[in-house]
Specification:
This protein has 176 residues and is of the alpha+beta class.
Length: 176
């Protein structure tokens, strides 16, 4: 793909035109979970897709049955899906939104009376997508993109938060 194109008018004039969009492909993930006394997690997971992310979501999911979507998500996220609602997946003038009610017993580790929870739960990227040893061309993301993850965790009674993840900016300033 080129980042610039050439516009040529009928009168013979020409100019450079940027081909990249200024709109970000966005994915907004919101997860609200409750940890029960027996360390089961139950929660709600809502995702909104817009711009190119919406197009990609529709392209990859609209031909699938609800059962296939649920099976794929359960395998990817290590949760059991109780209910799923997908809105605006066919209407291109509205933002597609997926809401999932789920539960899981595999997202928490209990060691010596302490609970260890991965802050982003199943939203963490597990594999590095940049595996080439030698890159001959720049990485093309097609469009600018933003992914926003908000996770709210309600811990069970009798527990208190001992440590929270450091902000990325704090970590970055330490290593510079």
């Amino acid at each position: 793909m080129n980042w610039n194109g050439r516009r040529i008018t009928k009168d013979g004039n020409s100019s450079w035109v940027k081909l990249a969009t200024t709109k970000h492909a966005t994915e907004d993930n919101n997860i609200m979970v409750n940890i029960s006394d027996d360390l089961m997690i139950s929660g709600l997971y809502r995702t909104k897709f817009s711009n190119l992310s919406a197009l990609t979501y529709r392209k990859n999911h609209n031909h699938l049955t609800e059962e296939a979507v649920v099976t794929g998500l359960e395998q990817k996220t290590n949760v059991e899906i109780e209910d799923i609602k997908i809105l605006n997946d066919k209407n291109i003038y509205k933002i597609p939104t997926r809401t999932i009610k789920f539960n899981s017993d595999g997202l928490i580790e209990s060691i010596n009376g302490k609970l260890y929870i991965e802050p982003l739960l199943f939203l963490t990227e597990r594999r590095n997508p940049f595996k080439l040893e030698e890159r001959k061309f720049p990485v093309d993301f097609t469009t600018p993109w933003k992914v926003k993850n908000v996770v709210s965790i309600k811990i069970p009674e009798g527990y208190k938060v001992e440590a929270v993840p450091r902000k990325f900016c704090d970590w970055l300033t330490e290593i510079i």
